[in-house]
């Protein structure tokens, strides 16, 4: 350190100092947090062992986790060690007055030091979650993630997902058709179209304002009560489809409308000047272009729709959630519902990633 | 004007309180090329858009072949089938390939079969040397190529008059020539054209009549030699001094 201080004075005389001193702080902080991480990881992971003295098999597993985790924490010390190495080289160069050459090891020191802090913090969060699961004699894990209950309920719970799938598919078709029709009605020009536009606006406002679960409840229990032959004798699933379609169409109508709006008027001018009628201009020029733009956000709504099918449980349908709740009540344990959570996690993550990919690609194309 | 094909009489147009066209009288004969010149904002584009009924006019009459085509109740689709329009920013349909851009109107408006339309479109593309790009998407073409396709897309409808709204203004300088060459060919083949342009050289070479617009009024018109060499009005002289000034 004293060397570096001397060098700094020297450098000041030579010219402006561009290397900040903070890399010293980062390197040492990284080393200290690395050591703390090792300690905390061991404490956190070995805590669970105190509950399993009477179960040697499980104890062996948990001890393995504790030792493995702490070993990983120790492995992360490689970052501070490297940072300190770069630090020494940087200081050496500064001492020789070679500030320009010192920038590179100083930069590497900062990178390694910050990486050590970042990885260490992440590991600590995971350890904290493990402590949360295992604390109080595995109370949380027992309540939510009991492997026995999960395996036992999984076949029937997952089989019930078929209903959610049917509802999703049926509602998607209705939503697409209804929303496109409403979006186009919303754009009818002139005085004659005004009441129609108002009607669509009222529809969109209403169903965007009312929570989906209320719509499902009112339609699912209300329509059968009316005893009107046309709407009261349906299978429960179709009330769910209707309610979700009405609710989601409001959002998707707005989506379509804004996409159609985003097509430049010059496209319509070009189509009309070629002799296409207004309807033809929309059908062959505007809507196809709007549809392309709308695909990524539309898939986003499709994902949301899949998840919201779990709401139909309030109608007493045996969908994936209904089935899981039945098991949960029997076991007096929530693990079957966690199966539902895992199910949605597994099926929606690839879709969301795909949507992100499409949006990225669209951005790239827009720049081109 | 015995053979006046397109006649514009006392045309007025405002956007809100702003009067863009203040009583324009202009006629275009068959096989004539009329160039509208004037500063930006003088009303050239608005005039063209009015002729194609893309803007509603406030008063005056636009007649095509003696038929009034302006005003309420006129079948604008029939009008537009006779009148082609090419825009400054090309306005090709980005979701359709080059040949589909050219085929769309003949198929949907004229009811041609796709095969027939394709054959005609290929012939037209061949005329501008782009038949090999038929399957490309518009954004894969240069600006000059796009504008040439846009012109051909209009020609596929066999218009009787072509309106061109500053069709070279959005192009890089080295691409202007290829578009102007096509317009020259069209003019030679007898196409009736009304065009707004900043290309004075082109106007002098190709126009049969040059009309100078200034603040929504048609100040002066005549054969290019007369307008460019001995303009009578002060505004025209001022404009041309600026427009024809070649630095260096």
Structure description:
The complex is a heterodimer of chains A (368) and B (248). With 368 residues, chain A is mostly helical. Chain A folds into two domains: 2-144; 149-367, MetI-like (MetI-like fold, Orthogonal Bundle), CATH 1.10.3720.10. Chain A is built from 14 helices and no strands. The longest helix of chain A is centred in the N-terminal third of the chain and has 46 residues, at 99-144. Chain A starts with a helix and ends with a helix. In chain B, strand 1 (4-15) and strand 2 (18-29) form a beta hairpin. In chain B, the strands form two sheets. Chain B has a six-stranded mixed beta sheet with strand order 6-7-8-3-9-10, sandwiched between helices. Chain B is an alpha/beta fold. The longest helix of chain B has 16 residues, at 173-188. Chain B has a domain at 4-91 and 161-177 and 192-243: P-loop containing nucleotide triphosphate hydrolases (Rossmann fold, 3-Layer(aba) Sandwich), CATH 3.40.50.300. Chain B has nine helices and ten strands. The A-B interface holds A 266-267, 269-277, 280, 284-285, 288-289, 292, 368 and B 49, 52, 54, 76-77, 80-81, 83-85, 87, 89, 91-95, 104-105, 108-109, 139, 150, 153-154, 157.
């Amino acid at each position: 350190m004293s060397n570096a201080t001397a060098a700094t004075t020297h450098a000041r005389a030579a010219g402006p100092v561009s290397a900040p001193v903070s890399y010293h702080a980062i390197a040492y902080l990284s080393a200290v947090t690395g050591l703390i991480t090792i300690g905390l990881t061991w404490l956190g992971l070995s805590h669970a062992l105190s509950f399993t003295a009477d179960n040697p098999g499980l104890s062996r597993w948990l001890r393995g986790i504790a030792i493995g985790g702490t070993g990983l924490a120790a492995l992360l010390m490689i970052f501070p060690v490297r940072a300190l190495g770069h630090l020494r080289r940087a200081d050496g160069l500064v001492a020789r007055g070679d500030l320009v050459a010192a920038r590179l090891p100083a930069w590497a020191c900062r990178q390694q030091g910050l990486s050590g802090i970042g990885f260490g913090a992440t590991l600590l969060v995971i350890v904290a979650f493990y402590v949360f699961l295992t604390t109080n004699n595995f109370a949380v894990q027992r309540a939510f993630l009991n492997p026995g209950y999960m395996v036992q309920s999984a076949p029937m719970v997952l089989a019930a997902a078929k209903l959610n799938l049917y509802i999703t598919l049926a509602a998607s078709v209705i939503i697409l058709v209804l929303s496109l029709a409403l979006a186009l009605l919303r754009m009818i020009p002139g005085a004659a179209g005004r009441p129609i536009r108002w009607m669509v606006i009222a529809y969109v406002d209403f169903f965007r304002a009312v929570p989906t679960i209320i719509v499902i409840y009112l339609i699912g229990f209300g329509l059968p009560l009316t005893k009107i032959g046309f709407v009261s004798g349906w299978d429960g699933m179709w009330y769910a489809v209707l309610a979700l379609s009405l609710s989601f169409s409001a959002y998707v109508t707005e989506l379509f409308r804004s996409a159609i709006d985003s097509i430049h008027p010059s496209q319509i001018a070009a189509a009309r000047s070629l002799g296409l009628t207004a309807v033809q201009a929309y059908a062959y020029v505007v809507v196809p272009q709007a549809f392309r733009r709308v695909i990524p956000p539309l898939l986003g709504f499709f994902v949301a729709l899949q998840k919201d099918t779990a709401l139909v449980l309030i109608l007493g349908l045996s969908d994936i959630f209904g089935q899981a709740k039945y098991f949960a009540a029997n076991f007096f344990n929530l693990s079957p519902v966690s199966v539902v959570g895992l199910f949605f996690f597994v099926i929606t993550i690839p879709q969301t990633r795909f949507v992100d990919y499409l949006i990225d690609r669209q951005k790239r194309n827009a720049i081109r | 004007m015995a053979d006046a094909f397109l006649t514009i009489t006392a045309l007025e147009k405002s956007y809100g309180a702003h009067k863009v066209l203040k009583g324009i009288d202009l006629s275009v004969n068959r096989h004539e090329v009329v160039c509208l010149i004037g500063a930006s904002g003088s009303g050239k584009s608005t005039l063209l858009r009015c002729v194609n009924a893309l803007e509603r006019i406030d008063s005056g009459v636009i007649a095509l072949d003696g038929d009034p085509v302006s005003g309420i109740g006129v079948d604008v689709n029939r009008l537009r089938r006779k009148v082609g329009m090419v825009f400054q920013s090309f306005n090709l349909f980005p979701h359709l390939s080059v040949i589909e851009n050219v085929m769309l109107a003949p198929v949907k408006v004229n009811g041609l079969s796709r095969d027939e339309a394709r054959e005609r479109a290929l012939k037209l593309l061949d005329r501008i040397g782009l038949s090999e790009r038929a399957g490309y998407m518009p954004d894969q073409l240069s600006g000059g190529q796009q504008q040439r396709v846009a012109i051909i897309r209009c020609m596929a409808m066999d218009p009787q008059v072509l309106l061109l709204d500053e069709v070279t203004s959005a192009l890089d300088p080295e691409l202007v020539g290829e578009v102007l060459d096509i317009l020259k060919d069209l003019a030679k083949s007898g196409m009736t054209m009304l065009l707004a342009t900043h290309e004075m050289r082109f106007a002098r070479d190709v126009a049969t009549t040059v009309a100078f617009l200034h603040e929504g009024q048609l100040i002066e018109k005549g054969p290019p030699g007369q307008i460019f060499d001995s303009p009578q009005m002060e505004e025209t002289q001022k404009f041309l001094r600026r427009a024809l000034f070649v630095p260096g």
